[in-house]
Amino acid sequence: MTLHPSVVVITGAGRGIGAETARRAAARGHAVCVNYRHDAEAAEAVAAAIRAGGGTARAVQADVARADDVARLFAAADAMGTLAALVNNAGVLARQARMEDIDGDRLQRVFATNTIGPMLCARQAVLRMSTARGGRGGGIVNVSSVAARTGSPGEYVDYAASKGAIDTFTRGLAAEVAAQGIRVNAVRPGFVHTGIHADGGEPGRVARLAPSIPMRRGGEPGEVAEAILWLLSPAASYCTGTFIDVAGGR
Q: Which residues lie below 8 Å from residue 122, measured CB to CB, with a gap of 6+?
C-alpha cells in the first residue's frame, strides 16, 4: 500500500460541515480519514464518494470523548500516510433548555464531546506533526461556534460554554506549538443548515432566526468548509490563533 503524503483527520465527518469539508479536502488532493461515532452508513457514503472521484478516504469509527478511541482513530490515519491536518468538527448538543433544566449528565455529555474530545485529538495530532518530535508540521482547525460569543441564552448555554472553552484552547495551543511548525486556528459558524438543529428539537431553527441575521439567510456547510480549508492551506501560512466567523454578519 502506498502511503499518502497528506492525510487529514476530520472528526464528525459523516454529515453536515464535516462531510462537506471531507469532500472538498479530497478534491484538493488530501487523503481523508472520515471519522464518525455511530452513523456508519453516512460516513461510508462520504468515503465511497471520495474514492469514486479518484480520491483516498477511509471511514473510521471512534468516539472522540474516549481517549482509547482517539488513539485508535489516529493509528488508522497513520496507516493511510503522513498526518498533515486535523479538523476538530465533531460536536453535540441536547434539546433546547434553560439552565435550571440542564442536569449533570447532559453537561458531562456535551463537554466530553465538544471540549475534551478536541483536546484529545489535538494531543494525538501534535505528537505526530510537531517538528520537535520529528514531524513535518501541520495544521489544526477547531470548529467552534458563534454561540461562544453570544452565550445562546434560553437554548444552549451549555453548548455555548463548551465552545467558549474551545476558543480559549485554540488561543493557548496556537501559542504553545507555533514554534513546532503547527498552526492552530478556528472557525465559528453561525446558523448553518445542518442536522444539528433537529438534534436540538427544532429542525427549522435557521429559518426562524434568518431575519435576525444581517445577511437575512442561514449559511451552507460548504461556506464553512471553505473557511476551514483556507486556514489549512499555504495561503494562511502566517495565521495561527486566528478565528474566522462564518455567520452572515451575526
A: 86, 88, 140, 142, 169, 173, 184
Scan for cell 471512534, then name that residue. 62
Report the pLDDT value the prediction gives residue 66, as an integer from 0 to 100: 98
Asked whether residue 11 is assigned to any structural domain, the reply reads: yes
Which letter does DSSP use for residue 2 in this model?
P
Residue 207 lies in a domain: no
Catalytic residue among 36, 156, 159, 238: 159
DSSP 33-56: EEEESS-HHHHHHHHHHHHHTT--
CATH number at residue 173: 3.40.50.720
Is the pTM value of this prediction over 0.90? Answer: yes
Active site residue 156: no
Burial environment of residue 150 by CB neighbours within 10 A (0 to 12, 13 to 18, 19 or more): middle
| pLDDT, position 203 | 85
Residue 62 lies in a domain: yes
Model pLDDT, residue 173: 99
In a domain, residue 47? The reply is yes
Percent of the chain residues past pLDDT 70, beyond the cut: 100
Q: Each residue of 49-88: pLDDT tens digit?
A: 999 999 999 999 999 999 999 999 999 999 999 999 999 9
Can you read off the three cell numbers belonging to residue 93? 448538543
